[in-house]
Amino acid sequence: MTPRKYVIARVPGDGIGPEVVGAASRILDAAGSRWGFSIHWADYPLGAGHYLRTGEVLPEAVLEEMASMDALFLGAVGDPRVRPGILERGILLRIRFHFDQYVNLRPAKSYPGVPLPVKPGNGAGLDTLVVRENTEDFYVGIGGRTQKGMACIDLSTERGLYSIHGRLEGTFTGGVEGAFQLGVASEPGIRRVVAYGCRAAKARGEEKITLASKSNALPQIYGFWEEVARDEAARTGMGLSIVNADAMCYHLVRSPDLYGVVVAPNMFGDIVSDLLAGLAGGLGVAAGADIGDGLSMFEPIHGSAPDIAGTGRANPIASILTGALLLDHLGEKDAAKSVEAAVAAFLGEADRKRLPLEFGGEGTTSSVGDAILGKI
Ligand code: NAD
Ligand code: IPM
Ligand code: MN
């Protein structure tokens, strides 16, 4: 049998991105040797360095090349030398939107050996799945600032499901300056994410999903979310519980294992998934995937962590577990399981000193990566 071959686009990005992606890539290559496949990495050195040198953020031709590849593996983008939003919107969000990666999967799973800030009531650990909507909400990028109190906001937006046209005009009296940012939700946009969450809950043997909402303060957009979510959950025979996002944060810090599958609009999902990452041990173990019907992207949920970049303090486990999600997506189920098992075996070891610095040990990015590599 000829070995299976995959072409994976790789964007290490900024800060700790290249450090953690480097450690994870070695482990995916090793999993390939063990399970009979190989990965060709197509490297794209995009990010702050490239932008500052060339002024280029993400060329259209790169998106065209990536479209035919099997998946995309990304570290993180964002750099203190570059105005916030240029790289984050220009690379990360552009990829999510361009490939219509409408689900952002963020498992919050704890592993034996990882210290948790709040002991879960079940005495075991955390195993929550955040299913975050990934193309709409306040992320669409529609907005603007006033000039002499007046704003004319272009609504032009292209999405896989639809496009939006038109403009909104508004004036603050007395020339007061201000800014607008619009949230968008569409019926099919909500429905496909809720449907995904319902399927995920069913696969986990659960009978309901929990929606993070906030229709008390934002009834137009989140009242609509609740309406569509109720309909979709009923259609698939899944129970639905609706919790205001603020209360959800409150409940989570007291009972971190309270929820199974959490479905969330884009912005609440961003916030709740960082909270759950902290409750499950830390951003350094929190994996993520941006799933669409075309090219999907795999990226840990943490950012470029400029505060620890270049120090060896970055925990590579989030990226390694993200790699396991990537292998699972490729259909390499045994390899995916073996990568997660290697992480669990490493973390479960008695020797606390070898644990990542993030968990109070002395393990660096490379020592942790090498130890996990040795277990494949
Ligand atoms: P961050 O996730 O980079 O860091 C938050 C905190 O967590 C920091 O103290 C950091 O040191 C720590 N941390 C993160 N990952 C870690 C790891 N693997 N091991 C140990 N500690 C880790 O969030 P931030 O500080 O808000 O953002 C920094 C930059 O990253 C910004 O430019 C931001 O826009 C960008 N960002 C990018 C992405 C992405 O590309 N996916 C995601 C979030 C933030
Ligand atoms: C994430 C990040 C991004 C987001 C930023 C960098 C645009 O925080 O992936 O969680 O808000 O989605
Ligand atoms: Mn985030």
Report on this structure.
- The chain has 376 residues and is α/β, with parallel strands linked by helices.
- It is 38% helix and 21% strand.
- The protein has helices at 17-35, 48-54, 60-66, 86-98, 187-203, 219-235, 245-254, 266-279, 317-330, 333-348, 365-373, and strands at 4-13, 37-43, 71-76, 103-109, 127-133, 143-145, 150-154, 157-158, 163-164, 167-171, 179-181, 208-213, 239-244, 261-264, 289-291, 297-298.
- The strands form 4 sheets. Strands 2-1-3-16-15-4-5-14-12-13 form a 10-stranded mixed β-sheet, with helices on both faces. A two-stranded antiparallel ribbon has the order 6-11. Strands 7-10 form a two-stranded antiparallel sheet.
- Helix 1 (17-35) packs across helix 9, helix 1 packs across helix 10 (333-348) and helix 9 packs antiparallel against helix 10 (333-348).
- The longest helix has 19 residues, at 17-35.
- The radius of gyration is 21 Å and the shape is globular.
- 44% of the residues are buried.
